[in-house]
Specification:
Elements lengths: L1 E4 L5 E5 L2 E6 L2 E7 L5 E4 L5 E2 L1 H9 L4 E4 L5 E5 L8 H10 L3 H26 L7 H22 L6 H26 L17 H23 L18 H6 L4 H14 L14 H15 L2 E4 L2 E4 H16 L14
Parallel strand pairs: 1-5, 2-6, 5-7
Antiparallel strand pairs: 2-3, 3-4, 7-8, 9-10
Helix pairs in contact: 3-4, 3-5, 3-8, 4-5, 6-8, 6-9, 6-10, 8-9
Length: 337
């Protein structure tokens, strides 16, 4: 169970073996610690007691704080989770050899493959109603898969040798993908194309917020695997930039966030903005709930059905075992359609 705190003035405290949220003295929510997977604070003006923090940390429950745009700005977790020295040493060394090349290529393959598969997933529901659109979308998915095949043939001794052609292929795939997304959304939905920071249309604002929710989950999985979230491979190093989080999240954007947001939009669920073009409180809570629910959904992985949350953690663990040379290859997660 995930606790989402979305009301200004809320107080998060501990009561016996439960985490309790109160507002103006009234109990709003109360969840036993043993049932709690995470705490997500998405409102301003929320306070939390040291007892609540202590028990969350002791039981491995992360406490995440997100801005109104979905950008994580703080995370409370145990300092003991970051003490795996060997994994981090090997992670840094991997950047300079073929392990970094293999990881960078795999992250990009996962991204392109999931873009192609989500298009196929959305297209299959148009087959009977709009055959022209169905064919166009399937053709676009094939184009992305061709780019993916080209990407797999890229070679180099270090990830720096591959970065430019890899990102070129990623960019071409993204252009095809987002163009088709615009055609697959409801006709009455405003879609200006993909916009990142500062987006003020409902769909892009919802996507950006959803990615922020997913980001916090990816970062948690990376830390639990003993990896350094700031030492990535495809995304270049920059102070304060969690490059490995941005690398691994690429495998999960489409199956977790895009599929969730497009589903809501095409079902006619209102994505509401305030006068400043920001998502309103109710919409932020809805998106957080739906993205976290999607992580509880199951996908086929290594021959069996697993929750996406479990798959995410296993992928982070695979990175760790790969850089330690305990695994022969790293395979990206590719969702079905």
């Amino acid at each position: 169970m995930h606790l989402i705190v979305d009301q200004f003035g809320s107080f998060i405290g501990k009561k016996s073996e439960r985490l309790r949220v109160t507002l103006k003295g009234e109990v709003v929510q109360e969840i036993p610690f043993f049932k709690l997977k995470s705490v997500m604070v998405i409102a301003r003006g929320v306070s939390i007691s040291s007892d609540a923090i202590y028990h969350c940390v002791q039981q491995g429950i992360p406490v995440n704080f997100l801005s109104y745009t979905g950008k994580p700005y703080a995370r409370v977790l145990s300092p003991h989770l970051t003490g795996t020295v060997r994994t981090r040493r090997e992670q840094l060394l991997a950047y300079e050899d073929g392990r970094g090349v293999a990881l960078g290529r795999a992250f990009a393959v996962g991204k392109l493959s999931n873009q192609a598969n989500l298009l196929k997933y959305m297209a299959k529901y148009r087959k009977g109603r709009d055959r022209e659109l169905y064919r166009d979308v399937r053709d676009a998915a094939i184009e992305i898969q061709v780019l993916c095949d080209q990407l797999q043939r890229l070679e180099g001794e270090r990830i720096d040798d591959l970065r430019a052609p890899l990102m070129n292929l990623e960019g071409r795939g993204a252009s095809i993908y987002w163009e088709m997304v615009g055609r697959l959304l409801r006709a009455d939905v405003h879609w200006p194309g993909r916009e990142h920071r500062g987006a003020q249309d409902p769909v892009n604002a919802a996507l950006n917020y959803g990615y922020g929710i997913l980001y916090s989950q990816v970062e948690g999985a990376i830390i639990l695997a003993g990896l350094d979230p700031y030492a990535g491979f495809v995304h270049v190093d920059r102070p304060g930039k969690p490059s490995l989080v941005l690398d691994l999240i690429e495998e999960f954007r489409q199956p977790v966030v895009d599929r969730t947001v497009f589903g809501l939009v095409n079902k006619g669920v209102a994505i509401e903005l305030d006068a400043q073009g920001r998502l309103i409180e109710e919409t932020r809570k809805l998106l957080a709930t739906k993205v976290l629910d999607r992580l509880e959904g199951r996908e086929r992985y290594e021959g069996k059905k697993h929750k996406l949350r479990v798959i995410l953690h296993r992928q982070a663990q695979q990175i760790a075992t790969f850089v330690r040379r305990e695994r022969g290859e790293y395979r990206p997660f590719v969702a079905g359609w």
